[in-house]
Amino acid sequence: MGIDLFDVERLHLAEAEAPPLSPEDESARDRVWDMAVQANPALFDGPVVACAGLGWAGPRNLRLAWARVTYRHYALRRVPGATALPSLFVNVVQPTDGGRVLAARMSPSTAAPGRWQLPGGSVEPPRDGEVLDEAALAGQAARELVEELGIDATPEVLRLWVITRGENSSIGLTYLAPALPEAALHEDFAAAAAAEQAQGREPELDEIALVRTPYELAGLVGPHADYLEPVVRRYTRASLRRNT
Question: Which of 2, 143, 186, 196 has a 20 to 30 A CA-CA distance from 130?
Fold first, then answer.
């Protein structure tokens, strides 16, 4: 399956209900999830947000319906005949002042060990009294930068840059961060990893790489997130246009 990229100026968000499951699908989902946890005990069934619908509300205005689920919901992808809502995640294009883009590798204990991707994570549902809006999504993207890379970026400096739709129709909200010096990125990442290890936890990311073009991604050994090459290519082309 190819990757769709959407240019968006405005995102309209509305909560919806996850579709009900038959008892058979629910039981099969739980069996698949339990097997996955046995294979990787680091998996946890925390609350997340899934995409319940996507459509245009006008030129470059996208309407996104979201539903509250937990991680085990995605085990439905391995249940014949069942339908899982697409996952919804945020990630960040973190450029350097030298024109490179940061790619990160997932640690062995994660759900995608060894996979190269952009820093980011699943969208979390709002707490009581809060709302899930554009500001909240930017806040979650900024939090991922702090937790995974040690980069203290405020939500206000992140710009929703592109939306991707890829494997299993998963929806990625990709933000663009201000450029930072390469040395600072390496130092911040090393400090964040050391802080996690000092707490007895394995960092979610175990390596970073700075790439200038999508062709350099081929040198990163291991699986790649399906959106990684198209997003890096888009950034490279945008950089070339700015510099000509």
Answer: 196
Residue 27 is classified by DSSP as H
Q: Where are the beta strands (DSSP E) in 107-212?
A: 116-117, 120-122, 159-165, 171-176, 205-211
- Catalogue all structural domains in the chain, each as residue range(s) with its CATH number: 4-242 (3.90.79.10)
In order along its 244 residues, the chain shows pLDDT tens digits of: 579 999 998 999 999 999 999 999 999 999 999 999 999 888 899 999 999 999 998 888 999 999 999 999 999 999 999 999 999 999 999 999 999 999 999 999 888 999 999 999 999 999 988 999 999 999 999 999 999 999 999 999 999 999 999 989 999 999 999 999 999 999 999 999 999 999 999 999 999 999 999 999 999 999 999 999 999 999 999 877 776 6
Alpha-carbon distance of 33 to 45, in angstroms, equals 9
**Tokens representing residue 148 in the block:** 């995974």
pTM higher than the cut 0.85: yes
Whole-number Å distance between alpha carbons of 119 and 105: 9
Phi then psi dihedrals of residue 212, to 5 deg: -95, -30
Q: Which residue has the tokens 């997932």?
A: 106
